Amino acid sequence: MTPKMPRRVFLEDCSRAVGGAVGLATLAAPSAKAAPAERVNVAVMGIRGRGRSLALGFSGMPDARVTYLCDVDERLLGPLAKEVSVRQSSEPKLVGDVRRALEDPSVDALVVATPDHWHALATIWACQHGKHVYVEKPASQNVWEGRRMVDAARKYGRVVQVGTQSRSAPHYRELIEYVRSGKLGDVHMAKAWNSQVRPSIGHKPDGDVPAGVDYDMWLGPAPRRPFNANRFHSAWHWNWDFGTGDMGNDGVHDLDIARWGLGVETPAAIHCAGGKWAHDDDQQVPDTQVVTFTFPDVKAILVYEQRLWSPYVQEGYENGVAFYGTKGYLLAGRAGWKLIGAGNKPMPTSSHPFSDEPHRRDFLDRIKSGGRPNADIEEGHHSAVLAHLGNIAYRVGRALTYDGRAETILHDDEAARLLRRDYRSPFEVPSQV
């Protein structure tokens, strides 16, 4: 199949003749193909935004080749296929149903850059087919399915890297080492923030599915809803059925760094205040949010702040993180990090260009040589849990008590029900992977 394939061929490829019977029970056994010694063949699922960037990134690496592009919107496939072909001197195959790529034994890895509601099922399917996975952040759409992703990675022995790229960035690794060195003193608070301007999406009526879009496949595990442009490309972030708000979108990057620096996993108590105040539009998620997390047996608090209406940056960084110690504090963002000592005395500053190339490099290297990647799925799961719990506390309007070992909310049945969702057949995330 080439970038110029006829629409008829694309639609035939996207068809699912046996409906619900094409489920997890019929997936092929994990491939016995050994880890590639030289070149990793990659399929990319979801090719707008991050998916497009990752497809171009992997196709430009000498030891990777993008062999499949997969998207439910056929209008996107041809143009990106041409760009990928130029970068790697070979054409990727184009499919609408990711299962066609997973059935190909020559594929080594799947990149999942879909909306959040597809992350878990695509990752689990890929692991069951013996593929490694690079899954965009947040790792999951809810807490329950995140744990299923960890289970799948471990059961099938797959490398599953989450797209929190800062885990591989040299200056973030450098600053985490500094925080843990004790030079800041005792760190009793970390703060992560998401401060930027998000435009209004307005109000839009339900309408017809655009030509060339397999909307049933796009919905996948999510409830059936009429097509609406404000629940589709990009705008899906702001709808609870498909996204996790900006706390799970941009905020999870800095939550991950704050949690990493503090050396904590799951919180015991969560408090949230906030609202949707900046725009009268179809967004369901908050634009203003402050969440505090405390952790068992840890004398530190993690604070998350979100302002999606602020045309200014906070302490030099639009999205950033701070570690406050008894001897000084550290401020960090993608452009670098800086220190402030006792009496507000400036200390050395470290500046670095930011790139996701080290993260892609780490993924390929772990596939070849083994070991856990820098943003292993379990680390990604713990950070996504922070976003999920902050959003649940916002939605129910009260503080939560969380049991991290059982991964459940205590004494609040309404909140606990939001830890997972019902899944639409035949796209159920399995309880046992």
- CATH architecture level-2 label of the largest domain: 2-Layer Sandwich
CATH superfamily of the largest domain: Dihydrodipicolinate Reductase, domain 2
Beta-strand proportion: 15-25%
DSSP strand tally: 16
Written description of the protein model:
The chain has 433 residues and is an alpha/beta fold. It has two domains: 7-166, Rossmann fold, CATH 3.40.50; 167-202 and 217-354 and 377-417, Dihydrodipicolinate Reductase, domain 2 (2-Layer Sandwich), CATH 3.30.360.10. It has 13 helices and 16 strands. It has helices at 7-14, 50-59, 77-88, 98-102, 119-128, 143-156, 170-180, 215-219, 245-249, 251-262, 357-369, 377-396, 413-417; strands at 40-45, 64-70, 93-95, 109-112, 132-135, 160-162, 187-195, 269-275, 288-294, 301-307, 319-325, 328-333, 336-341, 346-351, 400-403, 408-410. A ten-stranded mixed sheet has the order 14-13-12-11-7-10-9-8-15-16. A six-stranded parallel sheet has the order 3-2-1-4-5-6, sandwiched between helices. Helix 2 (50-59) runs parallel beside helix 3 and helix 6 (143-156) runs antiparallel to helix 12 (377-396). The longest helix is centred in the last third of the chain and has 20 residues, at 377-396. It starts with 6 loop residues before the first helix and ends in a 16-residue tail after the last helix. Residues 1-35 have low confidence and may be disordered. This is Gfo/Idh/MocA family oxidoreductase. Pfam families: GFO_IDH_MocA, GFO_IDH_MocA_C2.
